[in-house]
């Protein structure tokens, strides 16, 4: 039972959220997160995970995790800076740096933590951050934590970036100016214009920060969006998560040795929070090895992405401007979007609706995340169900 003061705060707020249909009930999955999942005893085709390559249940990752648990135990025991680092964490960072084509890397406990720690380790209230308006919540929170002036840049609008970069760097108000964006935007699947970003950054002396949570393991033969454009040495911070394509948990910064040396003494989630479990570190190392040696997994992911996009687009659905396997199906009206997702669920397709404030008003959508694990038959079923529900609700 909470205190009266806490009750008085929570009760009306929770009641209001529930009344407005804004309280997000979290489904309980019975078993693993794969191409199909089980909820309340019923099987669904799963189009909601970020398990792009199917690594969350890959047997070789499981074995690596089990072996590491036998060797190191279940926990790291303490913060690395206090108790020393396990060699498995060093090994993971070396593997990430090699894979990302950078001098060094530092691993965090999650992608979210990584953004909280990395941005605030370098930027302060004397600085300004130019931030794409559709950046992920963890970037926004990391920027806020740093105390820097946050200047929103219109989504992927390079003219707006140039203008604001010029303004910020010539105003004399700031010591440093950073530009920060997702590498692949998770709600639309569009890809950051890295070549133009690099050009503008060089012109105005910007620090560059790309969070490639959805591009790592997907773009650039797995090495990410920056590598895809061949500009690995031009972006200061390459952020990634170990929870999506890599299939485990964790986050990282890949960059110059000097940057990583600095983060190891200034990024607070690294300094004051216990590191990844040895099992997670070992599974991530195995994932990176498989990604480099077996390109067919990434090829299959792209093949599935193309197949689903083509199928939905042929039916007349608006699939937006995605350049990656992320397949949004833009419905528009928020209530209709919710209804669409609920009908898909009844028909056995688990694909979440995304509405305002996560995306702009009037652009409600179902976000479909095909993975390398989906079979053509599953995707054919999905397309047939979309057609049925789309006609029923007058969307197509
Ligand atoms: N950055 C971006 C762009 C993301 O999409 C996400 C995941 N939703 C994160 C960071 C957070 O990553 P993690 O789940 O590893 O904390």
From TrEMBL:
Protein EC: 2.3.1.29
Sequence ranges assigned to domain Aminotransferase class I/classII large in this UniProt record: 43-383
Name of the molecule in the record: Glycine C-acetyltransferase
Quaternary structure and interacting proteins, as annotated: Homodimer.
Family, similarity comment: Belongs to the class-II pyridoxal-phosphate-dependent aminotransferase family.
Classification via Pfam families: Aminotran_1_2 (PF00155)
Keywords per UniProt: Acyltransferase, Pyridoxal phosphate, Transferase
Protein origin, superkingdom: Bacteria
Species lineage: Bacteria, Bacillati, Bacillota, Bacilli, Bacillales
Alphabetical list of Gene3D superfamilies matching this protein: Aspartate Aminotransferase, domain 1 (3.90.1150.10), Type I PLP-dependent aspartate aminotransferase-like (Major domain) (3.40.640.10)
């Amino acid at each position: 039972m909470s205190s009266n003061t806490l009750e008085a705060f929570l009760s009306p707020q929770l009641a209001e959220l529930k009344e407005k249909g804004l309280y997000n009930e979290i489904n309980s999955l019975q078993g693993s997160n794969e191409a199909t999942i089980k909820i309340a005893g019923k099987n669904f085709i799963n189009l909601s995970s970020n398990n792009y390559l199917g690594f969350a249940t890959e047997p070789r990752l499981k074995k690596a995790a089990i072996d590491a648990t036998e060797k190191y135990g279940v926990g790291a025991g303490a913060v690395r800076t206090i108790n020393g680092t396990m060699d498995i964490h060093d090994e993971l960072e070396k593997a990430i740096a090699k894979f990302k084509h950078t001098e060094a890397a530092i691993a965090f406990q999650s992608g979210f933590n990584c953004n909280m720690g990395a941005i605030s380790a370098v930027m302060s209230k004397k600085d300004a951050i130019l931030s794409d308006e559709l950046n992920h919540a963890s970037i926004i929170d990391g920027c806020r934590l740093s105390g820097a002036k946050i200047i929103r840049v219109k989504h992927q609008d390079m003219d707006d970036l140039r203008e604001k970069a010029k303004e910020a760097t010539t105003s004399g108000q700031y010591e440093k100016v950073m530009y920060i964006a997702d590498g692949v935007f998770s709600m639309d699947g569009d890809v950051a214009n890295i070549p133009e970003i690099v050009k503008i950054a060089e012109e105005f002396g910007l620090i560059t920060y790309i969070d490639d949570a959805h591009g790592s393991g997907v773009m650039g033969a797995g090495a990410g969006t920056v590598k895809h454009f061949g500009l690995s040495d031009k972006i200061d911070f390459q952020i990634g998560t170990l929870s999506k394509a890599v299939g485990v948990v964790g986050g990282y910064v890949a960059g110059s040795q000097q940057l990583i040396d600095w983060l190891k003494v200034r990024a607070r989630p690294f300094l004051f929070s216990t590191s990844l479990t040895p099992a997670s570190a070992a599974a991530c190392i195995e994932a990176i090895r498989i990604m480099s040696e077996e390109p067919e997994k990434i090829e299959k992911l792209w093949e599935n992405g193309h197949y689903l996009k083509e199928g939905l687009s042929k039916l007349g659905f608006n699939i937006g401007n995605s350049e990656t396997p992320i397949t949004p199906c833009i419905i528009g009206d928020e209530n209709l979007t919710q209804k669409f997702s609920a009908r898909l669920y009844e028909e056995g397709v688990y694909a979440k609706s995304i509405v305002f404030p996560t995306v702009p008003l009037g652009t409600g959508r179902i976000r479909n995340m095909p993975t390398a694990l989906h079979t053509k038959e599953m995707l054919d079923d999905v397309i047939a169900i979309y057609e049925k529900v789309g006609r029923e609700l007058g969307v197509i």
